[in-house]
Amino acid sequence: MEFYSMMESTCTKILMIFVKNFLIFLKKGHKIISSSTLIPNSDQTLLFTNSGMNQFKNIFLGIDKPLFKRVATAQRCVRAGGKHNDLNNVGYTERHLTFFEMLGNFSFGDYFKNEAIQFAWELLTDVNWFNLSKNKLWVTVHNCDGESYDIWSNQIDIPNEHIVKIGSNTNDFCDSDNFWQMGNIGPCGPCSEIFYDRGDRFQGGPPGSLEEFGERYVEIWNLVFIQFDRQENGRLLSLPMLSVDTGMGLERITSILQGVNSNFSIDVFKKLISSISRIMKINDIYINRSVYVIADHIRACSFLIQDGVLPANEGRGYVLRRIIRRAILHGKKLGVNDIFFYKLVSPLIKYMQHIADILHEKKDFIAEILLSEEKLFQDTLKRGLELLEKQLIRLKGNCLNGEIAFNLYDTYGFPFELTQDVCLKRGIHVDQEGFDQAMLTQKKYTKELNKFDISYEKLSLCNVSSIFVGYDKLICKSRVMALFQNNKSINKIYTKEEGIVILNNTPFYGESGGQIGDCGQLNTISGFFQVSNTKKYGQTIGHLGIVNSGTISVGEEIVAQVDQHKRKCISLNHSATHLLRAALSQVLGSHVTQKGSLVNDRYLRFDFYHHATMTTTQMNTVENIVNEQIWKNAPITVDVMPIELARNSGAVILINKQYDKKVRVLKIGNFSTELCGGTHAEHTGEIGVFMITKECSIAAGIRRVEAVTNNVALSAIHQYKMLLKNIFQSTQSDDKNILSKIHEFKCRYQKLEKEIDTLRNQQIIQQSLSFIKDVYYIKDVRILVKQVVNMTSKTLFNMTDCIKHQLKSGVIVLINLNTNKKINLVVAVTKDLIERNRINALSLVHYIIKILGGKGGGRPDFAQAGINNMATTSKISIEVNSLLHNIL
Question: What is the pTM for the complete model shown?
């Protein structure tokens, strides 16, 4: 409580609530666990971390064993995609946020309903804690959960009229608002929700009533009792380990405790909004809800970037880009056309002091990403307005097709709201239904992100635990504990059969942490098993391979021997990977965070967050730093210590990964200290030499470096030397004049290319002029439809341009038959005909495609199409003439 007293005089009120929540659960024997990142570490089915239980999912599923029986967290959450998406509600309701913090307490096989309900009631009502009026609290329970009802009624002594039983919506027991399930199968159970009555000045009835969707009764806490395992047939089996998962939104409970009607009126938001209004120079901030949107979105964007999400055109990066652009558009609604969003990072850190400390280190990087994205969006808006303008010029009538509006939105990122605004000023209606239909069509092809994809067959391997002894030895005696084929347990594997061998102890390293699994051999009296890979299945290490001779049986004694040469090469590359990470952080900045890695016996690969291509100088500097560390022959040591001690020692810890109570800390001289479970060299000198072979982008904001070490690096150097020797011989040069020779060849080539282009253009002009004699009229318009053979796209464009210059006014259609017998055509229309709305090239191409089939596109003045092979050039000429007669 001394810590609490100290904080009381210095922090915001929201921090007081934050601290009180943790203090009570510390007193109740809970371990306080840090928030996981917004990127779910072990769940690819989730776009973002959206609840407190996400980081404990594998514990509920029985894959991982809990390190602590009781834990409490304040989990950062984002609900802006997938099953839980509140993005479009933000700013228009008092309670919805894209970014929020979820307070939660969890029990893994320890306490259950009675203690969970008692803890919740004490925190909410005790005078030392939240001190809410008991008369204002209501609860709901599943109508079949008599145990929870009795606890609330008899032990808590809440009035029965304040306890609402919520039944199933169908005959399915699980189909109820008061039943929680992880997915269609797996852990699930009834829940009890706690509501706060805000008084009769608000509309709405109590939970379970017809008026429950009003603003009067606010859900503040959900207590989930995980007691069943739902089978595929719908049957509920009792779980051997009963667990508790609770969640209470920090911002929502703060609004109740501070007596305000909106999340945006709590102290932390009020100060942030006030600062935003000064930076953006706007008034009436509490009248215009666009400020609410901007305040929420700067929180979501900053923490997403902090946790490794960068703007992109798909996945998490696409959602981040949408949030950034939505905030910028709301700035424009407020009349702010200058770049502003990146400036809001500083006040965010200042006023969200209870968690924003983690943003300090990346403050400049976050601002830089937001600034870059805002500039990009300005360009997008400019381009979108130009494209929209072209569509409106061609528009017949006063309604813009919804598919056109959707194409601007989906392909070019031009917001639908802006399309509506531009059209409204010109008295043009936008086809909302067409836009919505196009959006629905696209969503049909989007994968669902709200279902857990768990293969329960693989979990059968987790029944046997394996002890890894391969840090100290590469050969050991062991015993066969289990055998598997096609995920089924068997007793014996025969000659030439593949399978998985489980040992009680093994020197083989199971694939993890980016390091590939070991290979080698298992020998028994009766057989020989060739191990091609080693993998981890929960607590089990599986040896994958084939029986080369004899048989392998459960219970047999065995000698397990790792391929020593391959393990040595892997270990050298793994140590080099740690040196590379530290060097990249030193050269590029502290924002460099590992996104992924691969360590095998041939090379190493390291993926990391960085927003720009590495320069040659930067790559050379990184190489030099790593090689300097290698040549120092620094010792590589490993210490096993408690996670907190490792954290305090300055070890690099991946914030989106769960660790055991004790961890392995790898220290390379005074240069690198990281948590790592892999295998390594004993001294850096063993690595020999380090060379970067590739640097590239693999996704928006994610770079990849590939490198080689030791003999593989020497081999690469020899190859480069041989390549240079061949270049010297081919160019009759040496290392002193090679660049001047290459420059000489380049100049000569460019000169010849220019001469060829000149001759080609002269030929095009001559051929184009010869076409003029074939020009004819349809009504008062000059028409040229001509068949040509084997022309390139560039030649066709230049030819139509030349003919347009000669005609001054007219329509040119060139039908090109390629040597592969594919037909493509180009259509060009002079400017005067487009301006008079007589005809345009793109429309004509679309008409031709409808009749003859194929694909095409372009602009009003120039368009092209590929025609189906069934059509002939003469048939196309006839159809084009017919169309021109109809159109003109």
Answer: 0.62
